[in-house]
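FAQ: What does the model actually see?

It sees only this:
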Amino acid sequence: MNYKNVTKAKFIKRPNRFIAEVEIDGKTEIVHVKNTGRCKELLIPGCEVWLTAPGTPDRKTKYDLVAVRKSNGVLFNIDSQAPNKVVKEWLDKKDYSKVIPEYTYGDSRVDFYMEKTGKDGSIEKYLMEVKGCTLEFDGIGYFPDAPTDRGVKHIRELIKAKKDGYNSAIAFVIQMDGVSEVRPYREMHPEFGEAMDDAKKAGVEILFFLCHVEKDSLEIIREVK
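And it is asked to produce this:
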């Protein structure tokens, strides 16, 4: 996926989870942050950030903050809507006969439902929940960066779906270069780690989508199981 109208800026501060103050050509601008996570290790005063101007009418802010360069020099995409978009692009290139986003299963809306049709006409069903990873320590990705009861609920639904005959998967989109693994951040949310353990035992697939990040794009380059 690509962004249009990309502008470089300097991060000043984040008054709340929805907005940030940045400096563009010596002037302060209020921008929308497309990630409600904490991102404390990324959004540090003075760091380089990249903005996109969607041009949507009647917006309160002209720009969206979509990427930031961490103190270690690595560029991170922090757009929380980007993972589902790049996964959809990825799935559309595969041999699925059907790909449906935001599929209702049980009491949850799962990110993707897919089908594969066999030569004999049989249909294999898939459910996939997508998580974007923007938290990294020492070359390892971690999720979540804030407690997520919703995330735990989705994992429990995937475990149930596996028992019901679906091919179930949790897919982590790694929104940075150089990282190939995501681990549960148990210190942040122990229940999420427990749910992940149960998912593995139940046979739910854990997938890592390795990405290449540019200031104006995010692209999946490889899938690791």
